[in-house]
Amino acid sequence: MTSPAQPLPDPDQRRRAPRIRARLHELYYGRSDRSLRFRLAVIAIDFVMIAFFIAGPLLRDTPVFLFIDYLLALVLTVDLSARALATTNVIGWLKRPTTWVDLFVWLTLIFPFWLFNLAFLRVIRLWSLIHSEFFWDTVGRRYDETRWEDVIRAVANLLTFLFVMTGFVYTSFARTEGISGYIDALYFTIATLTTTGFGDITLPGTWGRVISIVTMLAGITLFVRLAQTLFRPHKIRFACPSCGLRRHDVDAVHCKACGVLLNIPNDEE
Question: For 255, which of 24, 101, 176, 240 could close a Cys bridge (C-beta 3.0–4.6 Å)?
Answer without folding.
Answer: 240
